């Protein structure tokens, strides 16, 4: 039987979990905002410099050569931005996984404690149900972790492909 104290404890644990997730997500958003602000400032400054250089060009040939010289650094900057973006996403994912593992562990303990209490009342049914729930919870946790790892591997593979010299030249 579930007591009011157990309900209160479960509510408190869920609230703490939500706050942990929210805090980690906001840290990622803050890092992303900082990165974008740095990129915006640098882009504005470089754009201003390039405009001044373009206005001081003596002829069309000089202007074209100046434009051509800007392409490679721009590609490198975009590549660096992608790396930083991936780094932020990977760090946030890692932190969320830590929170998830912590919450899963405490949630599993809570479920097992509840099942043990239930099994005292109805031994035969509870053992079977407890086994099924443990298996289902473990399987769900493994599936979520596997899917998360596959997604991160896919993103990482795409980033590595994009950072090869051939991709950078394209």
Describe the structure.
By secondary structure, this protein is an all-alpha fold. 94% of the residues lie in helices and 0% in strands. The protein contains 4 helices and no strands. The protein has helices at 4-55, 60-121, 123-162, 165-169. Helix 1 runs antiparallel to helix 2 and helix 2 packs antiparallel against helix 3.
Q: Helix and strand succession?
A: HHHH
By secondary-structure content and strand pairing, the structural class works out as mainly alpha
Low-confidence stretches: none
What is the CA-atom radius of gyration, in angstroms?
Answer: 27 Å
Count of strand segments: 0
Shape: elongated
What level of helicity do the residues show?
over 70%
Mean of residue pLDDT values: 77
> Distance N terminus to C terminus?
65 Å
Portion of residues in beta strands equals under 5%
Largest sheet features: none
How many helical elements? 4
Notable features of this structure?
elongated; 94% helix; mainly alpha; 0% strand; 170 residues
Could you give the topology of this structure?
Blueprint (H helix, E strand, L loop, with lengths): L3 H52 L4 H62 L1 H40 L2 H5 L1
Helix pairs in contact: 1-2, 2-3
Question: Could you give a short description of this structure?
Answer:
With 170 residues, the chain is mainly α. It has helices spanning 4-55, 60-121, 123-162, 165-169.
């Amino acid at each position: 039987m579930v007591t009011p104290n157990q309900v209160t404890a479960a509510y408190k644990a869920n609230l703490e979990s939500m706050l942990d997730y929210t805090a980690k997500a906001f840290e990622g958003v803050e890092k992303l905002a900082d990165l974008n602000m740095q990129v915006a400032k640098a882009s504005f400054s470089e754009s201003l410099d390039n405009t001044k250089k373009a206005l001081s060009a003596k002829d069309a040939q000089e202007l074209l050569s100046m434009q051509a010289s800007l392409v490679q650094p721009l590609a490198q900057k975009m590549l660096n931005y992608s790396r930083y973006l991936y780094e932020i996403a990977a760090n946030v994912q890692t932190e969320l996984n830590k929170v998830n593992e912590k919450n899963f562990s405490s949630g599993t303990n809570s479920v097992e404690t509840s099942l043990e209490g239930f099994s005292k009342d109805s031994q035969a049914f509870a053992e079977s149900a407890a086994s099924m729930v443990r298996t289902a919870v473990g399987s769900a946790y493994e599936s979520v972790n596997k899917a998360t790892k596959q997604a991160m591997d896919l993103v990482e593979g795409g980033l590595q492909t994009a950072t090869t010299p051939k991709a950078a030249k394209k």
